[in-house]
Amino acid sequence: MKLFVRIGGTVTFIILLVLAILFYKERATFLDLALQNYYFVLYKIFFIPHMRFGGILPQIPPLIVRCFNGSIKEMLLAHSAGFVAFYFAFFAIITFALKNYRIALIFLLWQLLLVSNNFYSISSEIPQGVAFLLLYFAWLEKNNPNHLNRHPVLHFLILLFIQFLHPLLVAPILFVLLYSFYTHYKFDFAKYIAPVLLSLSAFGIRFYAGKFDWYESSKLSIVDALKTNLPSLRHLPSVHKLFHLALGDHLLFWILFGLTLIFLFVEKRYVIGTLLLSFTCGYLLLVCVTNPDADEFYLENMVVPISIFMLLPFTDFVLKKLIDVQPVFILVLLFIISTRLISIYNKHSIYTNRISWYNKEFNIMDKTGENRVFKSDADVPMDTLIMTWASGYESLLLSSINSPDSAKCLSITPDLSAFKTSVNCDTLLVPRWEWPIPKESRNRYFRLTRGYYQIIDK
Questions:
Q1: Element at 178 (helix H, strand E)
Q2: Helix or strand or coil: residue 409?
Q3: So what's the pLDDT on residue 297?
Q4: N or C: which end of the chain has fewer CB within 10 A?
Q5: DSSP line for 66-87
Q6: pLDDT digits 0-9 by tens, 338-365
Q7: Domain end point (choices 346, 368, 392)
């Protein structure tokens, strides 16, 4: 297993890096990443939304490029490739420094199993939080889980840091700690007090802090969401979308989940089987009721932690049975990895189509001599664009990749009437979206000729 994890894991990350470079536009100009990169162009500083301070590490590569006045293309490439480098760094520490090959294998499979849209929608702090959690878990296992009981303050600070990446991380934190302590101490319940209290305390602080952020507070009304959406659970769009994913992109995961669950109960591992089933069902329920109308890519980001719930017992009990039969062990892992890599590659068409649509619009704007345009959601293919709130940032970045002189702003909105007061504005973005723009940033990256916004209304 050691050799496979070292070589197979490194090769897998190299393939992911190649894909990240090949599809850098699709990844680095999609929604939140477009906003982040626009912010880097303007201010050369970290972009930290909604108190998620732990998410700054993947921002370092594009910021370095920006600080050396690199081009937009170089910045986008650095951001896309930087995310793969970020996750590989965690994998490398777990593999080569901590030498915990079991957790390294879990980390590798986690990077693939519930990843399709996630490879192109990369801004979510949930996967970043899981990466920190698995690194912490590998370190905890190296020191013995009881290290937490001996040094509670240290562990609380680590858990609080991870928890601040996203409120939903409380579930994988609790699962990992309960799983670890059970496998080491079984029913010695006194050992469980500290990990449970530390986890819940970290979540309590994060939950309270989130109430002071407009976006976070809208997502933390869990009780209200349960009251409103639980009675109509089977009719929620989120349930249908996750079911669609389960029969498509996530089918392999759910097959492995079912096999793992059956194996655990056949082997009389009732506690671990119950832990896996209850955490998975509870977490999926929470995601569905709190995000009833979310898009598939967003839901996939939300459900990433459930792969950790399954991969821990899958690795410890199912794969362990195969490890003595090396050819079968390697073939199973190669099948999982290759199948998921192919699935990730095939998913690019959805995000490449968005880029193609923007390029067609840029060509039309070139012919009409326009460089600032408003369009309505009703007049664009929303199935292709998915979401349009970041269209202003996306269009500026995409149109300026080859030259700052070709910059264009195409802002798409559900309500054109809200922007009529901005039609006569000679600005980079409409005033309601625009931050103060340093002259250097505008001259170097977005050289829009003087002009005004045009409303294109079919």
A1: helix 170-185
A2: strand
A3: 93
A4: C
A5: HHTT--HHHHHHHHHHHHHHHH
A6: 999 999 999 999 999 999 999 999 999 9
A7: 346
Instruction: Name the token pair of 44.
Output: 């050369």
Report DSSP letters for 203-271, one per residue. Answer: HHHHHHHHTTSHHHHHH--HHHHHHHHGGGGGG-HHHHHHHHHHHTTTHHHHHHHHHHHHHHHHTT-HH
Cβ atoms within 10 A of the Cβ of 178, count?
A: 18
Instruction: Give burial (CB, 10 Å; 0-12/13-18/19+) of 347.
Output: buried
What are the b/e assignments for 45-77, b being 16+ CB within 10 Å? eebeebebebbebbbebbbebbeeeebbbbbbb
What is the 8-class DSSP label of residue 100? -
Q: How far apart are the first and last CA of the chain?
A: 60
Residue 332 and residue 428 in one domain: no
Which of 313, 329, 346 represents a domain boundary (last residue)? 346
Query: Which residues lie across from 338 on neighbouring strands?
Result: none
Using DSSP's 3-state secondary structure scheme, residue 155 falls into: helix
**Distance in angstroms (rounded) separating the CA atoms of residues 133 and 50:** 20
- Taking residue 40's Cβ as centre, other Cβ atoms within 10 Å add up to 23
Q: At what angle do helices 170-185 and 125-143 cross, to 10 degrees?
A: 20
Q: Which two tokens stand for residue 191?
A: 């050992």
Residue 410's domain spans which residues?
349-456
Residue 139 phi, psi (nearest 5): -65, -40
Least confident span in 142-156, 200-214, 258-272, 287-301: 200-214
Whole-angstrom Cα distance, residue 391 to residue 277? 40
CA gap 441, 444 in Å, rounded: 5
CA-to-CA dists, residue 28 to 9, 38, 72, angstroms: 24, 11, 11
CA distance 18 to 28: 14
Is 113 in contact with 311 (CB distance < 8 Å)? Answer: yes
Give the CA dihedral 235, 239, 243, 248, nearest 10 degrees.
120
Q: Is 311 in the same domain as 361?
A: no
Which band of pLDDT confidence, cut at 50, 70 and 90, is reported for residue 49? Answer: confident
Judgement on whether residues 396 and 255 belong to the same structural domain of the protein: no
Taking the C-alpha atoms of residue 419 and residue 33, their distance in angstroms, rounded to an integer, is 24
Q: How far apart are CA 112 and CA 120, in angstroms?
A: 13
